[in-house]
Structures are given as C-alpha cells and as structure tokens.
# Entry
Amino acid sequence: MKYIKGIISCIGIALLFIACSRGKAESGEKSDKIVPVIRDKKARFTGNYNREFNDLPDVHLASALKNGVKPMETRDDTLLLKDKLVRLPDELELYKTYPLSHSVPFLVPSAAKLLVDIVQNFRDSLYSKELPLYKLYLTSVTRTDEDVSDLTGRNINVIENSAHRYGTTFDISWKRFDPVDADSVNQVLPERLKLVLAQVLFDLKNQKRCYVKHERKQACFHITVRVDE
# Structure
C-alpha cells in the first residue's frame, strides 16, 4: 500500500495505514476457517438508536472545545495547523468518503485514532459474524467558517458553532455501505450493517471514547472524540 502525501509523521496517519494494511492482508486469500475475534463480555446494544445515541450538541461542543483546534476561516488555514491536524486519505481499505463539498478531510490525532478504531472494529465484527466485508462511508469531517456559512439554511442539523469546526468531529453514514466484493451474491442489508456499526459505537461510547448522536434526517452517526479528564 502506498503512503499518502502529507503528514506521515502524525500518529493518526500511522494508525490509519497500520489498520488498513492489516485489513488488506486479512482480505486477501480466503482461509478455510474464519477465526472470530475474541472479545470480553460487553453490554449489548438494545436496538434503540435514538435513546442510546442521543448526546446533545452542547456535549459535543464542550468536548470539541477542549480537545480540538482553533476554528478555521478558510480551507487555506489548514496549512497553518498542519502540525496539529491529520489529513485523511479519501479512500482506504476500511472506509470511503463522499465528495466533501462542505468539509475538509482533516482531524486532530485523537479523532483520527478514534476513526481508525471504529472502522477497524467494524471490519473485525463483520469477520466474527462471518459476514461479507463492507467499507464505511464518511459523509462530513471538519468544517471551516466558510463551509458552515454555505450549509446554514440547507442542513437543519447545522449550527453556527458546530463541533465540526474543531477537527474533533466526523459523520459516518448508517444508510450507505460499500461492499468490498461488489460481485458477491451474499450481500447484507443496510439495516443489518447499521446494527453492527451501532454495536461498535455503543462499545466505544461506553468506554468514554466518544459522544454519538443518531441523526435521522441526515442518515448518519454524528461522532465527536472524547478524551478522559
């Protein structure tokens, strides 16, 4: 796998490539038996998305203010924060991104690590359930003031002082998943994949790694990194 240009020294990028290299190796030749991931006994997600993932905007914002960077006015400002932000590849073995017309693919290292853990755990969970592999879709990452201005009035979930402005927050679709093997006859319904993703987020939320809001109209999980005090 080729390394992307940019900030290869950041821990987030290193973790991204480690995770994706592992994914590529495991998705190569099929073995006779899939070895399930051994996990500690954990609480199970109940299936109530709105109740379990209902962290309000002020909670996301408080964590963003504590763990993020200064909001950027324009996209050129990412150059001023190159030592504090990790640039995400558009597509790797474990995820893809929608065309980011109103955000930029940059996160602080702690949020980049959280993203890695989410996509890695999702892939491992599919393996353990002997399900076909799918990539997650990133739908929004960090927004500049210009991005927020463009979105105001278009997206009912956008607020002026959004947690997305601090490099700590990203959205993952719960409606669209990209099959690794598009020709496979064993496709999985999005509702089942959403449930697998929800369990992954439920575990990380219980570990106090993140705050999560289930966005119904935008069909995504709104996720902000949480760093323990």
